């Protein structure tokens, strides 16, 4: 962040007074959420094998086991390495059926990501309620509280309460007030259950994706914390925390080999690897901003500095980079490959987990983002709201494949979305992609 301006980007009267307090609190809350996620993620990939975090009972799914497993997942796609880790950590033998191993893998990843999801939801919900009063805060968020409240989830709940309190204890470093006493289980559950709004066309609500890009998070790769304020069906504020966003854009494309490669390319200390940012924008301001992430290991300072971000000026498809989901089950890679060919895109697609794709467009690190989910899949508002505001204010265009704006007024889903989501740095590229979708849609299998 060498070229960073020493200003508050949108605060201190630079921006219209509208929503300035909401934006200020939202940015700090997302910074804290990123801090929380980083602590969990560091545990996942730490060399200490996370022994200190072991659960007290002897159930096979210990946090320590999850740590070593996730480390294996983060650093290797080789099934034998993952199997080896399972053997050591859980006493599972090589004879265990592949299907069973896969079930175990999925459930371990789910435990870790759910713990983080709930912890972030509780933390953000608590911070918003403290700042604006719980009666005034309505939140739509990805995770519900039911499964965490079950008797069987007592250990998980205990771990969530600890994670939330550890994070809230750091609130003063982010210029916010934490609780006077550590929150109890019921307060944490109450904070999570306040995230029970269903959205809709009128009034004000927040849309929160506590961890977007779940697989990226578990693998130590890209993920995002996304918070948007939606007023009368329109997103008015967008805040996107990207804890692993690399300052060298080439590193975005390394995907799950990320850690291995980063460790070869950079000096070994994490301080010297300048990564992570929080981007934010207010609708209609014509400005989008980026703050560096306040790293937990450094002496934190607030107010934090910010610099404006802008979309790329590239209009020539041959020079443009397009990004898309990593998982082909989330978006058709073959359809976008056809589109890329027909509009003359020459570079390899940049496959990145999570709303970091929106951040990459807003920062000018890529020019096009496309997502075409399978027929029948309904896109959720929290997967897009924050990113849309930020790209638009950074100078870009986001619509569905019919050229209409995404509609955030219909509840939890982007109802009526025409085929897919297309975000571009500029109108010319956008028109070309829309035209190419129309030309090839009928012959596609989507
Ligand atoms: N089947 C299917 N089709 C389309 N989209 C789906 C599907 N399943 C999930 N999701 C949603 O996609 C969110 C992650 O999207 P990404 O663009 O980051 O995809 S990827 O992880 O890079 O593959 C992901 O968000 P998180 O759950 O927050 O990770 C989901 O909301
Ligand atoms: Mg998501
Ligand atoms: Mg999520
Ligand atoms: Mg999810």
TrEMBL record:
Question: Which co-factors does it depend on?
Answer: Mg(2+)
Q: Which GO terms describe its molecular function?
A: 3'(2'),5'-bisphosphate nucleotidase activity; metal ion binding
- What positions does the entry give for Mg(2+) binding? 142, 209, 212, 383
**Which InterPro entries does UniProt cross-reference here?**
DPNP, Inositol_monoP_metal-BS, Inositol_monoP_superfamily, Inositol_monophosphatase-like, Inositol_monophosphatase_CS
Going by the UniProt record, its keywords in alphabetical order are:
Hydrolase, Magnesium, Metal-binding
Signal peptide range in chain numbering: none
Answer yes or no on keyword Metal-binding: yes
Catalyzed reactions per annotation: adenosine 3',5'-bisphosphate + H2O = AMP + phosphate; 3'-phosphoadenylyl sulfate + H2O = adenosine 5'-phosphosulfate + phosphate
EC supergroup of this enzyme: hydrolase
Q: What is this protein's name?
A: 3'(2'),5'-bisphosphate nucleotidase
Xref: CDD domains? PAP_phosphatase (cd01517)
User: What are the GO BP annotations of this UniProt entry?
Assistant: phosphatidylinositol phosphate biosynthetic process; sulfate assimilation
Q: Which PROSITE patterns match?
A: IMP_1, IMP_2
Q: Which family does it belong to?
A: Belongs to the inositol monophosphatase superfamily.
Query: In the Enzyme Commission scheme, what number(s) does this protein have?
Result: 3.1.3.7
